[in-house]
Amino acid sequence: MGKCLNKVKEVDVSAVEGNKTLATGVGRRAVERCKDAVEKLGVVHTPVVGTTKSGNRILLSGQCELTALRELGVKKMEAIEVSVSDDKGAKAKLSLQLMSLRERPGALCEGQLLQEAVSAGVPRAEIQSMLGKSASWVSNRLSLVSRLDDKVYEMVKNGLLDPRSAEEIARLPAESQFAFAEMAIIEGLPKSAIESLVAGYRDEGCPDTVKAQILIDPRAALKRMMDKRRAVNAVRLNRQKNGAPLKVIDGYINAAKSCITTLSRILLSGPAHKHDEYKHTLKEFEADLSTLLNIVRDIVYPGKMEVDHNAG
């Protein structure tokens, strides 16, 4: 891939060949912002230049900076020089590595920086112009910061919680965020799991018992949600392929109706002070009935569930 020279060199701006691929991602506004920053602060992000055996200099990172310097009429610039071979694969890998180092700070960090600027009296219109972002983008970032519980943000600052996981947790009700964040840290949940659990909690059809389990035992709740999702998908797939015989379906429905009638009679006739003994089992039964009801509605009213979901 080439050996880094481990030092910054002063090179002629005109001697560096621009990178056409990188240039496609550099807009006019970005160049103007970069020129403004160069005039006030100098070059903040040092360009990386690859030098071939023949002495040619090829830009590997920093196209925006190079363009800004040329338009400002700067003759010399400091650049990190890296020896590169003529192998296209090696150059491509090096370019990807450099690209990975320019990762954005993330929505939460951006929101905090925006909030600090707004609190310091910087007008939003000026912020939009500086960043080249829309009013809705700025509002969304500020809204994220205002929604996130302060104690959860402290977890992020102390390195206990990944910022992108915190962004997902901010979608939960404020009073539930800290409890969930604590359990997510204890259980070592990845962002993908947190995203699924938050989505499940926010689902209007999610039973209260499942919501409570998401907060106190998220790993068990995640397994439960995945098991039910697999079961529902399996039923739908089987129905799409061949379906069950009508007599079999009728038999299950009649048996279920009979069991429900009997269970209703027992529950209504029993003393109220005995209900606590099987309340936990009934809560789980309620969640199962909710899943079955969604399947039944999907069959009886085909397409309506998707329309209602999209409308929401």
Please, could you describe this protein's structure?
Strands 1-5-3-4-2 form a five-stranded mixed sheet. With 312 residues, the protein is of the alpha/beta class. It is 65% helix and 9% strand. It has 16 helices and five strands. Among the domains are: 4-100, Conserved hypothetical protein from pyrococcus furiosus pfu- 392566-001, ParB domain (Alpha-Beta Complex), CATH 3.90.1530.10; 244-311, no CATH class. Helix 5 packs across helix 7, helix 11 (191-202) packs across helix 13 (218-241) and helix 12 packs across helix 13. Strand 3 and strand 4 (57-61) form a beta hairpin. The longest helix has 24 residues, at 218-241.
Q: What's this entry about, in short?
A:
This protein has 312 residues and is of the alpha/beta class. It is built from 16 helices and five strands. The two termini are 51 Å apart.
